[in-house]
Design goal:
The protein is built from four helices and three strands. The protein is mainly alpha-helical. A three-stranded parallel beta sheet has the order 1-2-3, covered by helices on one side.
Length: about 190
C-alpha cells in the first residue's frame, strides 16, 4: 500500500460492502444542504457553497481511481424516504449540470487553442520570409516581434491544452464520481 493510500485510509472510512471511501457530512437538517439565498423549490435549489467546498476538498484527498460514497448524518431530522430519493436525484442532476458546464469550458479551450496554434503558425511562417532583410533595422525589428508573437501564441495554446485542460478534465472526473456515488442518509434518532 502506498503512503498516499495509507493516509487516505486513516482519514476516510471504507464501505465494507463495495470498498468505496465514504465522505461523511454532518448536518442539522435537509435544508442545511442548500444555499440559504436560494428560494427555489426544494427540487431545484443550489447546494450550499460551504458544502460544495467541503465535498470538493474531500474528493481531492481521495485518489482519482477510487470510487466514493457520501453519508449524510442529520442530527435534527426525522427519516423521510421521499425526501431522500428527491435529494439523491437532485444531487446527481446538480453534478450532471456541472459536468456539462465543464465540458463546454473544455470545448472553448480546445477552440481557442486551435486558433492560437493557427495564429502562431501564421506568425512564425511569415517571420521566416522576413529574415532576409537583416540590413534594414525596422524590417529586422518587425521580424523579431513577429517571431516572439508566434512563440507567445504557441505557448498560450500549449498552456491551455495542458494545464487548464488537465485541471478541467480532473474536475469532470470528480463530478462524475459524485454522480456515481452511493448516497446514504443516517439520523441521530435512528442511529
Amino acid at each position: 500500500m502506498s503512503k498516499t493510500n495509507s493516509l487516505v485510509e486513516k482519514l476516510y472510512d471504507r464501505n465494507p460492502e463495495n470498498g468505496n471511501f465514504i465522505i461523511e457530512v454532518s448536518l442539522n437538517n435537509y435544508e442545511a444542504i442548500f444555499n440559504d439565498w436560494d428560494h427555489a423549490p426544494f427540487k431545484r435549489k443550489d447546494i450550499h457553497p460551504g458544502l460544495i467546498s467541503f465535498l470538493e476538498d474531500s474528493i481531492d484527498d481521495i485518489p482519482i481511481h477510487f470510487c466514493i460514497d457520501i453519508s449524510f448524518y442529520f442530527s435534527d431530522e426525522k427519516k423521510d424516504v421521499i425526501r431522500e430519493e428527491v435529494l439523491r436525484k437532485w444531487f446527481k442532476t446538480f453534478y450532471s449540470f456541472y459536468v456539462e458546464l465543464e465540458k463546454n469550458k473544455l470545448r472553448r479551450i480546445m477552440k481557442n487553442a486551435s486558433l492560437y496554434l493557427f495564429i502562431s503558425a501564421l506568425l512564425l511562417t511569415s517571420s521566416y520570409f522576413g529574415v532576409g532583410h537583416r540590413d534594414n533595422i525596422v524590417s529586422y525589428t518587425l521580424t523579431e516581434i513577429v517571431v516572439v508573437g508566434g512563440w507567445v501564441f504557441l505557448w498560450e495554446a500549449i498552456s491551455r491544452l495542458t494545464f487548464e485542460g488537465r485541471r478541467i478534465r480532473r474536475l469532470i472526473k470528480n463530478y462524475k464520481r459524485f454522480i456515481n456515488a452511493e448516497i446514504v442518509f443516517r439520523y441521530k434518532n435512528t442511529a
